[in-house]
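Fold this sequence, please.
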Amino acid sequence: MARQRRPMIGIGLLLLAHKLYSVGINTLPPVTLLAIVGQTLLFLGIINPPWDRYDVCISGESILIHKDYRRLVLSAIEHADDIHLYYNMASLMLKGRSLELRYGSVKFCILLAVFTIATSLTYVGLVWGATEIFETYSYMRQCAIGFSGVLFALKVLTTHYEGGASHYVHGILVPTKYAVWVELVIIQVLVPRASFIGHLAGILVGVAYISGPLKYLIDGICGLIPVMGLRGSFAPSYTYTRSTVGSNPYQDSPPEYSRQNYGWNVNGSYTQTEQSSQGNQFNENDQFRTYPAQPTVEELRQHRINRFL
């Protein structure tokens, strides 16, 4: 059954439009922006596929019994209502902007695709396991939609890369290693209709990437794709400057990452001490830049004289 267009603009869509305006569309990397715009257009019915959102919700029964494998992907990009869409897309803005800059657009696109399928498969495995353990078929019929499972997987990655001993989760300071687990419980308390198993599946996928198995798979897929011709525009690109206007052109100062097209400062996730450490490490290992030799006193004097000639 084809989905119906939604002519009414709800509060969630208005909040999403305001969020995009506040963040700035030009600050979002291409894959993140495409994912947000695509899911929004799908929700509005502007992209009008031949199914309704609940026709493709994922359940253990639909995959294991009815073999409807398209739900492994389609269930993740559909949303129940505009508030559901808003919270997921607002979260994707933050996580996508950080991770896409780290990985590059090609690898981040592959990461999203693999995480989407892996989260859905893990969800099916969890509901099957719950059915076997608790001896009730109701778990197999729980049907879920939404991108939040993938977002929980991305949350594991961003928390891992940010480091630090503790994180704030909904205003509560918790140890970093427990942050995603605390968020899992808090969201379930605040939003009882949320899919606990779907969110748990996302966390397990994120852990599988950090611990190795999924990382090797994604790296292997990236190695099979001929990205050499795309590397200039899709690989991570960090533009840095060596000095400010009016400074000594010969001064060998540590590089600083600049706020470029994506509007994201790569050092934003580090403390001041960590930033200094990162800068020093970059200087020591930088083998691709040539620095001018330190001028002699006579050369400096001649340079000043030339300025007035």
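The CA atoms of residues 139 and 239 lie 50 Å apart. The beta strands are 166-169, 172-175, 240-241, 256-257.
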